[in-house]
Amino acid sequence: MNVFISVPDETTGDVLGDLNSRRGRTQGMDKKGSHTMIKAQVPMAEMLSYEPTLTSMTGGRGDFHMEFARYDEVPTQLRQKLIESLKAEKEEAK
Fold first, then answer.
1. Cα–Cα–Cα angle for 67, 16, 10, nearest 5°?
2. What are the strands, taking DSSP E only, across the chain?
3. Which backbone phi and psi does 70 adopt, to 5 degrees?
4. Would you put residue 33 in left (φ > 0), alpha (ψ -120 to 50) or beta?
5. How far is 86 from 80, CA to CA, in rounded Å?
6. What is the pLDDT of residues 48-72, one digit of tens each?
């Protein structure tokens, strides 16, 4: 997903760190008054629980929106976990 996040300047570092932990790739930043606009690409699976995290980090002063960018291949380590999980579910269903 293409993600656009507006945060107060003092929380920019925390937000960037959180995006990195979500496998995000920062595309750029623009300063607008006392806020910083962060542009990034982040897997949608990592963004499903983002709103409460952003609210907590910014004290409710951050905002974001996202739009579809493209499909990417799942990283190898996550792919293995997904395959093992699906095999376990299939075995339980038998």
1. 115
2. 2-8, 25-32, 35-41, 63-67
3. -175, 170
4. left
5. 10
6. 999 999 999 999 999 999 999 999 8
User: Cα 32–4–59 angle (5° rounding)?
Assistant: 70
* Phi and psi torsions of 68, nearest 5°: -65, 135
Residue in the structure block whose two tokens are 């493209």 = 70
Q: Per-residue DSSP letters for 77-89?
A: HHHHHHHHHHHHH
**Residue labelled with tokens 């920019």:** 12
Predicted TM-score (pTM) of this structure: 0.80
Name all domains of the chain by residue range, CATH numbers in brackets: 2-93 (3.30.70.240)
- What are residue 23's DSSP bridge partners? none
